[in-house]
Amino acid sequence: MRIVMMGTGLFAEPTLEALLASSHLVVGLVTQPDRPVGQERGSTRQTGQGMKNLAVQHQVPVFQPESINTPEGIAGLTAFQPDLLVVAAYGQILSRDVLGVPPLGGINVHASLLPKYRGAAPIAWAIYHGEKQTGVTIIRMSAGLDAGDMLAQQTIDIGANETAGELESRLAPLGARSALQVVDRLAAGTPVPGVKQDKTLVTKAPKLTKEHGLIDWTRSAEQVCNQIRAMQPWPTAYTYLHRTGQPALRVIITRAVASGMLDDAPIPSGSLFVDSRFPTSLFVTAAEAGPGERRLVEITELQPAGKRRMPAADFLRGHRPQPGDQFGPAAP
Is 66 helix (H, G, I), strand (E, B) or coil? Predict the structure, then answer.
């Protein structure tokens, strides 16, 4: 079977590797144009070996149009004479004309348990919303966003402290294995029945922006920690440290856990303090978990503006919290 792989970023790489190692013929790779570092596309903007590098190593032609849906893009795809498209985190919605190029259409490797989390960032939004499980779904591609019939689905548990980047690294090979199984069946002429998605269960996973990383300390500690995990490695979760008589300091929070209760209800959300029993730990108050109680966020790793990423103990050596010190938005 002649296959064109379409994908960008770390999530797509194991699928390309699996196809290259299989009996199928990968006749081309369609991937995003080369971009400056920091502007890469992909579910979490992790690149690994690089799709283009993998293709070049195996003498697979690479096509990098700005838009695959233009006449030029469709002509370039048609020149490969594919039987099937295999798509994973490509970064563009494919038109009916594109999907009509190969006789067998296309299949997509999607990093969620569809119909939940349709969209560009399913891994991050699953963590953000506190899901305990996620997985991969192989769908027969249609003109709708991640709306095609489901051909295969695999489920895994989400680790309690797992970041989006770490979870993506586990989901990617799972998706590759599932995709190859579907491709093998299609190549053998074996029917691959699809299951329609329940439209009443659809949730969205829109593309992340930097603004999604701003922490709202009036949410619960669990929700804050989920957000921090979901925004790693991009766009990262951040807040601003407000201290009397000093300008606000932007701080990226990279690791945190929900930790303990606080009975002193009048302390505002976002307040920083150190517990004398744990002098090297930085705690921040979050929303109430119950009457008269607050959950605490224990920050274990952070990065002040202009500084390196550091453990909380290192940060505390230069920024010991004072009464009134508080995390919040840029304008208090």
Answer: coil
In Å, how far are 95, 146, 166, 167, 170 from 10, measured between CA atoms? 24, 19, 11, 11, 11
DSSP 132: S
Closest CA to 268 of 242, 248, 249, 231: 242
What is the model's pTM? 0.94
- Residues 52, 87: Cα–Cα separation, whole Å: 15
Find tokens 């150190």 and name the residue: 274
Beta bridge partners of 239: 251
Q: Are strands 84-88 and 2-7 parallel, antiparallel or unpaired?
A: parallel
Which tens digit of pLDDT belongs to each residue from 12-66? 999 999 999 999 999 999 999 987 765 555 567 777 889 999 999 999 999 999 9
Residues 273-306 have pLDDT tens digits of 998 888 999 999 998 777 666 789 999 999 999 9
Six-digit token pair at 277?
Answer: 């029993």
Considering only CA atoms, which of 293, 208, 221, 206 is closest in space to residue 253? Answer: 221
Report angle CA 177, 59, 4 to the nearest 5 degrees.
Answer: 50
**72 vs 160: CA distance, rounded Å:** 46
Residue 98: left (phi > 0), alpha (psi -120 to 50), or beta?
Answer: alpha
Here the contacts of 160-165 (C-beta below 8 Å, separation 24 or greater) are: 161/229, 161/255, 161/257, 162/127, 162/229, 163/127, 163/229, 163/230, 163/232, 163/233, 164/43, 164/44, 164/123, 164/124, 164/127, 164/229, 164/230, 164/231, 164/232, 164/233, 165/44, 165/46, 165/232, 165/233
Q: Could you tell me which residues come within 8 angstroms of residue 162 by beta carbon, excluding any fewer than 6 positions away?
A: 127, 229
Q: Please give the structure tokens belonging to residue 173.
A: 């090979």
- One DSSP character per residue, 258-286 reads EEEEE--TTSPTTBEE--TTSTT-EEEEE
Length of the chain: 332
